[in-house]
Amino acid sequence: MLIKGYIRKGHQVSLFAHKDSITEAELYAYTDKSKLDFIEHSWLINKVIFKKNFDIVHNFGRLAYLLPQLPFSIPKLMSYQREPTLSQIKKAVRIARTGSLAFTGCSDYISQKIIQHAQALTVYNGVSLATYSFRKHVDEDAPIAFLGRIEPIKGTHISIKIAHETGRKLIIAGNIPKEHANYFNDKIAPFLSKQIQYIGPVNDVQKNELLGKVAALLMPIQWDEPFGIVMAEALACGTPVIGFKRGAVPEVVEHGINGFVCSTTDEMISFVNRIHEIDRAEVRQCAEQKFSSEVIVHQYLEIYEKLIKKWK
Fold this sequence. Notes:
This protein has 312 residues and is of the alpha/beta class. Helix content is 37%, strand content 16%.
């Protein structure tokens, strides 16, 4: 998404990624994974960076990949999509040329952890609005949905209780990690019925169809979600999100505007019964203003420009 946005704006982009990646950028391909993949990837990345005259390096991978570059003045941006390892950040800041290394988190929940030790900003994850179609209306008896990995921390079992208590149909979609097969067999499979369906993993086209036809997306998470891209995808379809107040959920879900934030299962049940209060057009507008690919591309380019200006 970022690469496409940057190239449309006339920038030159190089990508370090798997050899099968399909991209408009100049691709520097990693070899197939091996026990030495970290060393091989680091060698490739840093060999090219030292040789080429890049304006900035933006890393979504391991912070350690930047280690050889840290003492030098080339601007470096490290983006975290999950809980950061603060000990690594502190070490990197000590090694880095002053002002050459900055960080972003995919939510305030993440960036606030970093900012105690380093320069950090929040840039949310984004979605291509062209991929997700706005649906202004759904049927009054439209189902609710759970979309995500089928495992305890995602709260799939709670979504089933919500369906039973509200009388709503529930569509469950997502992959079942091997290590959580027993969870699916014990807590999910016995409750599948005409009311509660499991449709398996879904691709972008299927997600667009699913999220567009449901009354709400449930996020009954049992952990601190760093962001939860599925919430932005639902909002892009005009579908409100009802989630527990953990991690980044309160940042994405504006209570009473594009969904509801709650603390208990009973509260979630009550808010499912109030879905009709949410204006789906306003939900889509929230996605356009905060999570569209255009907004995210613009925010990153602004950060690049500020970092690069320090060394021009």
